[in-house]
Every structure is written in structure tokens, then in C-alpha cells.
Design goal:
five-stranded mixed beta sheet; 14% strand; alpha+beta
Length: 339
């Protein structure tokens, strides 16, 4: 371990370690580590992160999501930033920036990694207090971190889109088969296929809903931090907010579009499944009506047969009764004749 460890279950921790300060903060999905050093030398060649032991850094758990160097330099009130000098700090990359916090400072970045793998922010202090400088640096770091976290959803959106295309094609084909089924077995098979499509759709929703929701939340945080900057335009530089509107917003809209497609697909599958179930129910009702009609016909036949049998039974019983009566009457007549 290096320095005093943070207290158990704490979300914030700060420590002064020699010539630099270390700040740690736990967020919902990530931890942030900030190293602060005051130095007369300005530039990105000797960042404070080099003051930490390499083995300690290598032993940190998790994956690196965003890494940024921030340099704050006092600037004369009348001095205008030179494009060439600024771009030299960013290794010739295209730089965006503007005046911030009511023209009390200037902030520049390229939103690209330098040769050391770190992003860079260059801040010119034009009369800010220490607290204001700290808040500005924190806002800039949060913009870069939240932007990176939001863009994690773009990878999920790109991976989900081909699968959505396949499911939508399968659904279109199944809808086309709804009016072509001829018996109950085909209707039931179609319903089974719809259930399979619904299951795959819900699997995609389960895997991506959290990431898309996080992308939306991080995007709102980025916009909130941009508003806090109160940025105004500098000659020869594209504002940070304008750059992000053109480069960051399309990624967010892509994630929102894929999320909407998933919800739309789920609703369409549900409606199609309801229609298929209705057709199955109607087919079952027709089958039940046919069965009841057949049972009714058999019952009428049985009733007629029973009536016929009963009629024949009456005739037979009458015949036997007459025979017995004739026999009895014949005996009576014979006895009278003998007298």
C-alpha cells in the first residue's frame, strides 16, 4: 500500500504525500484517483502521476477507463493564446477551447490521447481563486470521464444493431405468415416462433438496458458540467461545447435510437403474439363448435334410435300381452263350452 488507506466504506479520501496530494473518490461504476502537484514547470512532460510507484499503480484493481493530465498556468490578462503554442502542447493535434467562468480563465483540449496514452487539458488562469481553479479542473476532468463512460454504450449499440435487424426481419416474415396458416397446428407453430423471437428480444433488452440508461445519465452530466463552464468563444478555436455537440451527441442519439428500437420491437412482438393467440383461440372455438355440432348430431341420432327402440318395445310388449290375454280368454271360453 502507498500512503494512508481510505477508511472502510468511505466514498471520499484525501492524503498529502510529500510534494503532492492524492484524492480518491468512489462513484457508482468507477473509482477516480487524482494526483495534484504545484510546480514552477508548466507542461505535460513530467506529470504528477510519475510520482507514484509503478508497482503500486500496477496493483490497482479494475480497468482504466479514462486518464487525463491537466496543466494550470497563470496568464497575463492581455495575453491572447497563440494557436501554434497551444497545439504544440497537444503534439500538433486539433485543439478546441474557449473562455470559461465569466472570462476568468481559458481551457483547451484535443479530446485525444497523447503519446503517453493520457488525454490533456490546458488551463490558463486569468485571475481565478484557488477554489475556483479547483472547481474548474474538477469540471473538466468530469466532462472527460463522463463522456468516456457514456461512450461505452456506443459499443453495445453497435453490437446490438445487427441482432435487432435479424429479429425485425424474422418478425416481418412471421407477420406475413399470419394470414396464410390453414390449421391449428400451423397456428401453434407460428406462435412458438413468435415466443422464440420475443425471448431473444428480451435477452437483448436485459443485456443493454442498464448500459443505455447509464449512457443517458452520463450524457446529462456532461451537459450539466458544460453549462457550469459558462464557455464563450475564443478566436481561432472551436468551443468545447460545440465540439461535443457535433462529436458526442451523435453517439448518444445512436444509443437512444437503439434503445427505442428495442422497445418498439418488444411492443410489436407483443401485438403480433396477441394477434396470433387470438387466431389460435378463434381456431379452437371453431374446432369446439364443430365438435359440439358433431356431438349434437350424434345425440339426435341416438335419441331417434332410442325412440325407435322404445316404439318397437311397446309393439313387442303389446303383442305378447295380447297373446297372453288371448290364451287366457281362450281358456275361459273352453270351460264355458264344457259346461
Amino acid at each position: 500500500r502507498y500512503g494512508a488507506p481510505p477508511p472502510h466504506q468511505e466514498r471520499h479520501h484525501a492524503a498529502t504525500l510529500g510534494t503532492f496530494r492524492l484524492r480518491w473518490e468512489r462513484h457508482t461504476e468507477f473509482d477516480s484517483l487524482i494526483v495534484i502537484q504545484e510546480s514552477a514547470k508548466v507542461g505535460f512532460k513530467r506529470p504528477p502521476i510519475e510520482l507514484l510507484p509503478e508497482d503500486w499503480l500496477a496493483g490497482l484493481e479494475g480497468e482504466l477507463v479514462a486518464a487525463t493530465h491537466v496543466v494550470v498556468e497563470p496568464a497575463a490578462a492581455a495575453a491572447a493564446p497563440e494557436v501554434v503554442e497551444i497545439e504544440r502542447l497537444f503534439e500538433g493535434q486539433r485543439v478546441v477551447g474557449g473562455r470559461v467562468l465569466g472570462d476568468s480563465g481559458e481551457a483547451f483540449t484535443a479530446f485525444r490521447h497523447g503519446g503517453d496514452g493520457f488525454g490533456r487539458f490546458y488551463v490558463r488562469d486569468r485571475g481565478m481563486s484557488r477554489g475556483r481553479v479547483g472547481r474548474l479542473v474538477q469540471r473538466l476532468v468530469e466532462i472527460d470521464t463522463y463522456r468516456t463512460m457514456a461512450l461505452l454504450g456506443l459499443t453495445v449499440a453497435k453490437a446490438t444493431t445487427p441482432q435487432l435487424n435479424v429479429l425485425e426481419s424474422r418478425l416481418v416474415a412471421l407477420v406475413g405468415q399470419l394470414g396464410k396458416t390453414s390449421d391449428l397446428a400451423e397456428e401453434q407453430g407460428l406462435l412458438d416462433e413468435l415466443f422464440a423471437v420475443a425471448q431473444e428480444s428480451e435477452r437483448l433488452v436485459t443485456l443493454s438496458t442498464y448500459r443505455f440508461s447509464a449512457t443517458e445519465a452520463y450524457g446529462r452530466l456532461v451537459h450539466d458540467r458544460l453549462k457550469d463552464l459558462r464557455e464563450t468563444r475564443l478566436d481561432d478555436f472551436q468551443p468545447i461545447a460545440e465540439f461535443l455537440d457535433r462529436r458526442f451527441e451523435p453517439a448518444q442519439r445512436t444509443c437512444a435510437s437503439v434503445a427505442d428500437r428495442q422497445e418498439s420491437l418488444s411492443r410489436r412482438i407483443a401485438r403480433t403474439a396477441d394477434l396470433a393467440r387470438t387466431r389460435v383461440d378463434v381456431a379452437l372455438q371453431k374446432q369446439n363448435r364443430a365438435l359440439l355440432a358433431s356431438m349434437e348430431r350424434r345425440a339426435r341420432v341416438q335419441l331417434r334410435l332410442q325412440e325407435t327402440v322404445e316404439g318397437l318395445s311397446v309393439v313387442a310388449i303389446s303383442y305378447y300381452a295380447l297373446g297372453i290375454l288371448t290364451y287366457l280368454l281362450g281358456g275361459v271360453v273352453a270351460s264355458e263350452l264344457l259346461k
